[in-house]
Design brief:
The complex is a heterodimer of chains A (296) and B (151). Chain A is α+β, with helices and mostly antiparallel strands and 296 residues long. Helix content of chain A is 41%, strand content 13%. Chain A contains ten helices and nine strands. In chain A, the strands form three sheets. A five-stranded mixed β-sheet of chain A has the order 1-9-8-2-7. Chain A has a two-stranded antiparallel sheet with strand order 3-6. In chain A, α3 packs parallel to α7, α5 crosses α8 and α8 crosses α10. Chain B is mainly alpha-helical and 151 residues long. In chain B, α1 runs antiparallel to α3, α1 packs antiparallel against α5 and α4 runs antiparallel to α5. Classes of the chains: A alpha+beta (296), B mainly alpha (151). Chains A and B meet through α2 of A and α4 and α5 of B.
Chain lengths: 296, 151
């Protein structure tokens, strides 16, 4: 009986099948497929890129939402607008009262401020670029016109690069004022591009330094008895409008423009009435003016 | 904790302390009405920004810069805590979340400055930049694999 030769036993079939893999097992393989990691600087660069893009988007929104400057009004149009706003019926001003204006006018002390002819002096200090000055010139013109008259007023707009860009307004530069009750002096320090326009006298500068040490503009001094700085209403109600449109809006006492501008004009009128001893009576005897005077 | 991690943590803490200083200065200016060392005309107009309605939190009397003091203090605190500890994953995640919150707030404030006010406050921009730097450092040095405790 033949015996099977003893020797290395042949591998069982399962092991036989493994043999080809044993050969491959000698070759080192990674345990898993290497994962490509994102470089550390990628998220940071992406963040900076997104921030930069957002800033550009914000600037674009600002640019396209900023109202363009209205085309400048010619001499005839300017005269028509001034005539309209300075001949509003007293009844409308009475109806508006203080309107939506904020009374910044405060009492001050000092030597009575008078002009060259001895009349009480109203002094304005501002600049053409300033949007708050732009807003305040409307009520100043209306109020002062109740005591006298302007000539030589011209239109302009506030700075294109400041807040409330391109606010339509007038400038006191080159204008004159005459009145039997008061005198008016105005200094527009710079034009709408912030180029030097007018230089205050030493006396005018002393007033600013004393009563407006913070340097806010516009600054208005009523005979060294009352003063205010800043605007008494916000210029946002004037945005995107032309001078004609504003003049038209002022004829409606409930319009935001009338509430702001005429309300401010009444505040200014009351302060001037204090200087003139409530003269003229047609201007200073109204209930609205009396009420405001009582709170000055 | 690796030396590099310590350096990064110290940098975040230093940025946080610088932010606290800037925020304290802005808060001081708000309450004392002291003149701000900054331009007040043109596009760079600190006064315009800091006297706007957005200079206070939600119509309250609390200046926005006070929130900056809180944010930078917490950010610096988290960084110091990580320096003192062993780089806890929880602290790391908290630092990331806090930085992201700060950056989102900065984006909102920049929107207000540019779009609504049309003016930029220089000192506010310094604070915003410090928030951005904190966020960039945190996301650049974050290592999710190590964070999870896995090799």
């Amino acid at each position: 009986m033949a015996r099977k030769r003893k020797g290395p036993r042949s591998a069982p079939k399962t092991q036989q099948k493994a043999r080809p893999q044993e050969a491959h097992a000698k070759v080192k393989r990674p345990l898993r497929k290497p994962v490509r990691r994102t470089p550390a600087w990628v998220p940071a660069l992406a963040t900076v890129g997104v921030i930069a893009l957002l800033v550009v988007v914000f600037l674009a929104i600002r640019y396209f939402s900023t109202p363009a400057a209205p085309p400048p009004a010619n001499t005839t149009q300017t005269a028509q607008v001034v005539s309209t706003i300075t001949s509003l019926p007293a009844s409308e001003l009475e109806q508006v009262g203080a309107g939506s204006a904020t009374n910044h006018i405060t009492a001050i002390t000092g030597t009575a401020l008078t002009g060259p002819t001895g009349k009480p002096l109203v002094f304005y200090y501002g600049a053409e670029y300033c949007p708050f000055c732009a807003a305040e010139r409307w009520p100043l013109i209306i109020a002062l016109s109740r005591f006298g008259s302007f000539s030589g007023l011209t239109t302009t707009t506030s700075s294109s690069s400041d807040v409330y860009a391109n606010t339509p307004t007038f400038t006191f530069h080159g204008a004159t004022y005459s009145s039997q009750y008061i005198e008016f002096q105005a200094v527009e320090t710079t034009d709408r591009n912030q180029k030097t326009l007018e230089t205050p006298t030493a006396a005018q500068l002393a007033l600013v330094n004393r009563y407006d040490s913070g340097g806010s503009i516009p600054f208005v001094d009523f005979g060294n008895r009352y003063a205010f700085n800043g605007a008494t209403y916000l210029p946002d109600s004037l945005q995107g409008l032309t001078w004609d449109q504003i003049a038209t809006d002022l004829q409606s006492p409930v319009s935001p423009q009338a509430q702001g501008i005429l309300g401010s004009a009444n505040l200014i009128t009351a302060a001037i009435c204090k200087l003139t001893g409530d003269q003229p009576a047609t201007v200073c005897s109204g209930a609205a003016i009396k009420s405001i005077e009582a709170h000055l | 904790m690796a030396g590099r991690d310590r350096l990064v943590g110290a940098a975040v803490a230093a940025v946080g302390l610088a932010g606290v200083a800037v925020s304290i200065y802005l808060t001081f200016v708000h309450y004392s009405a002291a003149p701000l060392v900054c331009s007040t005309s043109g596009a760079i107009d600190c006064e315009r920004v800091l006297t706007s309605a957005f200079a206070v939190i939600g119509g309250s009397a609390l200046p926005t810069s006070a929130a900056g003091i809180v944010w930078f203090t917490v950010s610096a605190g988290l960084a110091i805590a990580q320096l003192a500890g062993r780089g806890s994953p929880l602290l790391s995640r908290a630092q990331l979340a806090w930085s992201a919150l700060g950056l989102a707030t900065v984006i909102g404030l920049v929107f207000i400055e540019i779009v609504m006010l049309g003016a930029v406050c220089l000192w506010c921009t310094v604070a915003h930049a410090l928030v951005l730097i904190t966020f960039l450092v945190v996301i650049t040095t974050r290592r999710p694999g190590v964070e999870g405790g896995r090799a």
